[in-house]
UniProtKB/TrEMBL annotation:
Biased composition (Low complexity): 169-186
Pfam families: RNA_pol_Rbc25, SHS2_Rpb7-N
Residue ranges constituting the RNA polymerase Rpb7-like N-terminal domain according to the UniProt record: 8-64
Organism name: Drosophila simulans (Fruit fly)
Gene Ontology terms describing biological process: defense response to virus; innate immune response; transcription initiation at RNA polymerase III promoter
Classification of source organism: Eukaryota, Metazoa, Ecdysozoa, Arthropoda, Hexapoda
Gene Ontology MF term list: nucleotidyltransferase activity
Name recorded for this polypeptide: DNA-directed RNA polymerase III subunit RPC8
Amino acid sequence: MFVLAELKDNVRIAPDQFNLKLVDAVRDEIDRKLANKVLLNVGLCIALKDIVSLKDSIILPGDGASHTEVLFRYVVFRPMVGTVITGKIRNCSREGVHVTLGFFDDILIPHAALQHPSRFDEAEQAWVWEYPLEDGAKHDLFMDVGEPIKFRVSREIFEETSPIGPPKAEAQTQQGASSSAAVASATSQEVKTPYRIIGAINESGLGVLSWWDQQGKDDEQDDEEDEEYDDEDGEGACEE
């Protein structure tokens, strides 16, 4: 779930940090720059592990800060496809079940990857697994907000969110529309999520933990009853 990524960067240390040791100043600057940030095709940066190497620092003309090329290793959150993770249900929508890990919220279990058959309850705003019983009836198992849920990572999606240039002007702006209309058009663009995880629970043992905990308790109770029944039969045979 967590991996070590080896990265290289040119770290700028401002003059007011020159009183610190170079290693300490570089560590602080790297964490300030990367902690809780998503790097494209790398993952969510968590914390600096260690610094592998520091090259000689240079001061550029017109800039009083020092610039140092640094090779370092960073702890990154990027679970492999197929990894089983336990999180909590953040909310449900018709799109599916949204899950949080506390430090990472962009996890979606699409409705097609839920236990089958499932339906979306509009009143409760929750997905419901219609668990089939032996007599042909169905028992509703709700996926409520805050419930611990175990899921398997099925896919990861990275998106470039850095601006690549000014927004394209629309036809209205070409016809002399005001600049405020162009600004409104730019702000109405969809906000992209840099890193998303797609999960699935459509297999035995996955889903809301309380489902399987209850089943385990029922199985244990059945085993105990069978043992008691066997003991009674054994005692009866001995008396005969």
